[in-house]
Here is the input.
Amino acid sequence: MRAERRYGEGLLLSKEGFSHEMKKFHSTIVATGTHTLPPIMMLRAFERVASRLSFRLAAQDLSLTPSAVSHQMRGLEHYFGVRLFARTGRAVRLTPTGEQYLGSVRSALAILERASRALSLDGPKGREIRVSALPFFASTVMLPRLDRFVSKFPYVTVRIEATPQYADFEGTAVDIAVRMGRERSAGLHCDRLLDVAAVPVCAPNLSSREPRLESPSDLTHHTLLQISMQPNAWQSWLQDAGLPRLEPAGEIWFDNVSLALEAAERGLGVALAMDPLIRARPGFGLTLVTPLPTSASTTRTYYAVCRPEQKDERVVSAFRRWLIQSTRDAASKP
Here is the structure.
C-alpha cells in the first residue's frame, strides 16, 4: 500500500515525493546560495509544533507522522542556522528565537489565509466567514436567527467559535468577534451592539418559597451560582447593591454560563445573567425569573469588532448588519 502524506488543505504527497521535495529544496539553497522563503508546509508544521509543543499532536493536526514533522523542524533549523526548539527527551519547548519567529509566522499564515479567502469575494462559491462570540451571546442572539443570514447568503460557509477567550486578530483568520467591552480592541473597528446589566435569576419556586428572596439582602439565605471565567461577577454585583460583605448560604462553581443558568432553572441557587438578553432565553418567565425588582449592577456593552480593512467587504458587512439587527431583536423580545 502506497504511503501518502497530506500537506495544507488537500495536497497529498507520497513518502517518496516528500523526500524528493525536501532534497530539491535543500539542493536549491546549497546550489544558489539564495535565502528563499522556506516551503509553506514547513512553516505550517512549525506553527503547529510551536502551538502544541508536541510533535505527536502537531503530526495529528497535519496528517503526518511525528518523524516527518521532526524532520521538517530540523530542516528549518538547519536552513536558518539557529535552534528554534529545545528538546529534552520527549518534551519540546520554544527557544527565545523560536518564540520571536512564531509571532511572525502566525501573522504571515493568517495574512495568506485571509488573502486566499478574499479571492472568492467576486464569486458565489467557497466564501467563508469566521466568527468568535461569547457562548451566551452565540446561543441567545445568533443561533435562533442564523437562518436569516444563511437564507440570504447560502453560498457562505459560517464558522462560529463560541468561546470566552479574546479572538486573536493578528495571528488567526477570524473575521468578526463579539466581545464584552473594548479591551484589546486597539486598531480594530467596533460596532456597539447592546448595553447590558447583570441581574440575579432563579427558578420560580425558589423565589416564592421560604426563605423568601425579595431584596438583595435575602441572598444571604441562598446559594450563589458562580462562574469560574467570571470569578468576581457576584462580588461586583453585591458591591453595587451596597452589600460588599454579604455571605451567601453557599456557592456552586461552574466553568460556563450555560451550566450556571441550567442549575438555576433546576432550583440549585441564584445565578447572574445579562439583562435584557436573558429575556430572549427559551422558557424565560416559566423556568427562570428575575426575583428582584431592579438591577443593582452597572452596565457593560457588547461590541462586534473586525479589522478596519475588512468592515466593508461584502460578506463581512452583511454579517455585521445581520448581527446588529439580531441583537436588537433579541433585546426587544418581551
Q: What stands out?
A: The chain has three domains: 4-117, 125-193+302-331, 196-299.
